[in-house]
Amino acid sequence: xxxxxxYLTIIACLFLLWYSAEGQGEKIARLNLMPLxxxxxxxxxxxxxxxxxxxxxxxxxxxDTGRAARAVRRMLKRLAGRTGLFFTDNKIHIKSKSLxxxxxxxxxxxxxxxxxxxxxxxxxxxxxxxxxxxxxxIGILRGLExxxxxxxADKEGYYFPAVMIEDRPRFVWRGLLIDSCRHFMPVxxxxxxxxxxxxxxxxxxxxxxxxxQGFRIECKTFPKLHQLGSDGLYYTQNQIRDxxxxxxxxxxxxxxxxxxxxxxxxxxxxxxxxxxAPGPYTIEREYGIKDPTFNPTIKATYKFFNKFFKxxxxxxxxxxxxxxxxxxxxxxxxxxxxxxxxxxxxxLKDNHALxxxxxxxxxxxxxxxxxxxxxxxxxxxxxxxxxxVIQSWRGKKALREAAKKGYNSxxxxxxYIDLAQPTDxxxxxxxxxxxxxxxxxxxxxxxxxxxxxxxxxxxxxxxDSRIWPRTAAIxxxxxxxxxxxxxxxxxxxxxxxxxQLEELGLTHIKNQAMILRRLTNGxxxxxxxxxxxxxxxLKLYARHHQGATYTFFSPLTRxxxxxxxxxxxxxxxxxxxAAFVKGNRTKEAAEVLIKDLKLxxxxxxxxxxxxxxxxxxxxxxxLSKDLAKIADIGxxxxxxxxxxxxxxxxxxxxxxxxxxxxxxxxxxxELMVVTAIEQLVNACNGDK
Length: 688
Ligand code: ACM
Description:
The chain is an alpha/beta fold. Helix content is 44%, strand content 15%.
């Protein structure tokens, strides 16, 4: 009997533990934080935000409070913006002890913008005050973003819920690549995206600054680089310093990428003598892998890079320099007899070996200027020392191999946000998958990852909607534990974070309405919006294979550019339809589907008159018609299912053809509800 009681007690305790953990889990989820912190405990009570909100920094050490104070100033502005409160005391109080402000900040030292700097923080919200502590001011910046995500409202007003948070990143390298070359991105685009990055605790801007299509930095030593290679679209050195300082103020490193020896047409326009072909060169207007490449066999090339990197090393203060190294097709090397002779003389068996020869010389130059070299997969060659960092874009295999061979690496494969893939695809792509077979030592060499915003198909007007909100989910992958992987909860939080990101000036939501207005020539956009809500741009590189060739000059103002990756309306419909088919065949579940299907069925007749007046919309006319047709099929299918009746012979076959046709891309975009309606049709036959 005694034993029995003991077991009962243990079971009861386990249950209680489980129960309270469940309760905490739900409460934590309701905090809507992204990235989710390492540890959160939700407490009773709240700290009300009122006009008498105050903020202070405890200055015990010699650490400069400048960056933290500027961050608190921005935080107060955002808090006032959200709450509409006119704070009466806008001073940042800096005292050596006995702070009595609402928000009390304490850190030990200034963080340095270097890899692996301490970003931990702890945040305690009590009903009396808020304490934010960190080792460095960079930790403080991360904590302030968490605090801003905590703001809530109830009928009494705005407040911070009482919590205890201990937080630190899982990976030290959490980056976003922005390609300013295929399309130039003005300073304000970079700045607002730095704000977005900081909001989700990312810490590296990988700035792709040179390409076949443009050389985007003012270069004083070799001015023909930007003068002849950029169409006048380049950043002055003052602008670059301004952006680096802006990023530093947000705890973000700026790593420049100078892509060499390939992807280099724009450099060679002003300096054709450094190319492998005779030239002349003109700025490339098309996209893809091009032939121009530096001549790695002549001394002039290395003299040039020595001076070039000397100047750039002083300008870009980050320790890491990216040299690209990708997609050098070697055609101009093969066509140049002198280069072939050089390869023979130096026993370089192929172009890969010649590129390794080039990389070694570049590494020597960068090392002289105290920079560490980073490059794409292609620079992962046994001849190079393991002080270089490999950025893996072609697959995780290279990442694992690099880690096994002692190289540090960063993952970008699976985070190519230019490919218009859904958020959950990126979210579930872990830099260190469970089956990676790496030792703890090797795992440590995987520094993190980077989302890559390549710019063939984006403009300053659309870039934000291709980066956000999906990159917030990627940021969570890099910051939070691998066990944080509930897709539904990610999507729920992502909606909230997405609209919070707008307060930073990001245009990912609002620009769509503007593009639609332009497309309808100022007419009512309602019907077009209904269609666009269930469309997505073609994925992977399919937009480049639709007949028209995209170039630097192509418009990015069409319906496809207003359509968003991972269209929410379509995603939700797919989920609801799948649940209905799988068994939740209630009238209520059907009504939800019917409401959407009816809207889509009627939509084409509303859109038709708008298309007549806007020739630019002609390309999506049949897509709109198809949406109406398949919505009608969907309505019939739902009715059959509800009535438990099977359709007559031929109905399914006939409609499958219509559904097949509806899958075809139009206007470089596709409908994202066809498969869901197909499932409904199949379910009429009893399929699940
Ligand atoms: C790359 O996408 N060529 C790095």
